[in-house]
Design brief:
This protein is of the alpha/beta class. It is about 35% helix and about 20% strand. Helix 1 crosses helix 6 and helix 7 packs across helix 9.
């Protein structure tokens, strides 16, 4: 199996690539840096140095590779969610997906965002009506890409899978993200500053996200040419609970009053029944296990 991946050296991408490489698939990665050191143990990985805006420079290499499957993870400029950056990513992604179609890819897996569910509260299934009025430029661009690709594949014998990861955490996450930030505060003897102690998210470990995407690629066939899947844990974990887990690891007393467990406005968690049924995937790493691994890694 020949697989082309954008964003293959990023937070999620490196886990996806490593899992696919262990299956001995031929992998071609588009990356601004040819980070061969990251995958030095694998001989079945090659690189194209470039970014999404340089399709005209690497299109011939992509044509020679003849990808059977494509995973589109890259979205440049994050955390810039503004209109200009979002539009640039949208146009570059459309051009790339058109190229995948022209080259005869059998299946394209592209990454959306749980932010597409902005304006909703509670358990969210893939079929919920999206609240366009709540979109920012980033969400509008992601949703537009999904709509465009869904139309494009009607002209080709291609399966298009759109995945919406929820709040991804794990090793390799930016230090400014919530869980690494809290761990580093404890590590350095500082008290973390938390704006919403009683808020919560559907946290899903990056290794589980990668495993879900690989399972989607490995599946023989899908009933629909166009499918959408949530990737989440299927439940809310409150920031307070995360703090307590970290306190417990360091054998410190947790003195914060326990909050209620009611879902408040804007809090969402994934209905993962579709991906369980169609793909046979379910999360394997609990938040407690994932945090323990991060604490042990960061020392």
């Amino acid at each position: 199996m020949r697989i082309f991946i954008t964003g293959g050296t990023g937070f999620i991408g490196k886990y996806v690539v490593e899992e696919l490489a262990r299956k001995n698939y031929d992998i071609l990665i588009l990356s601004r840096e040819s980070n061969t050191e990251l995958f030095r143990d694998f001989k079945n990985i090659s690189f194209i140095k470039g970014d999404l805006s340089e399709l005209h420079l690497f299109k011939n290499k992509l044509r020679k590779f003849k990808p059977e499957f494509a995973i589109h993870l890259a979205w440049e400029g994050i955390p810039d969610y503004g209109a200009e950056t979002s539009l640039k990513n949208l146009m570059n992604s459309i051009a790339l997906i058109m190229t995948f179609c022209e080259l005869g890819c059998k299946r394209i897996v592209s990454v959306g965002s749980c932010w597409e569910y902005r304006g909703h509260t509670g358990k969210i299934s893939e079929g919920v009506k999206l609240n366009v009025a709540a979109f920012n430029a980033f969400v509008a661009a992601k949703t537009s890409l999904y709509c465009f690709a869904s139309e494009m594949i009607k002209k080709y014998n291609i399966q298009f899978i759109w995945v919406r990861p929820f709040f991804v955490y794990g090793l390799g996450q930016k230090k400014t993200s919530l869980i690494p930030y809290i761990i580093n505060c404890f590590k350095n003897g500082k008290r973390p500053i938390i704006n919403n102690l009683y808020g919560g998210n559907d946290f899903i470990n990056v290794k589980d996200v990668a495993n879900a995407m690989v399972a989607i690629l490995d599946k023989n066939n899908f009933a629909n040419k166009n499918s959408v899947y949530n990737i989440g844990s299927g439940h809310i974990v409150r920031i307070q609970e995360i703090l307590k887990m970290i306190y417990d690891f360091y054998n410190l007393k947790f003195r914060i009053k326990k909050s209620h467990n009611k879902i408040t406005h804007g809090e969402i968690y994934a209905d993962i029944s579709s991906i369980k049924r169609d793909v046979g995937w379910r999360p394997r790493i609990s938040i407690k296990k994932g945090i323990k691994e991060m604490i042990e890694y960061y020392g």
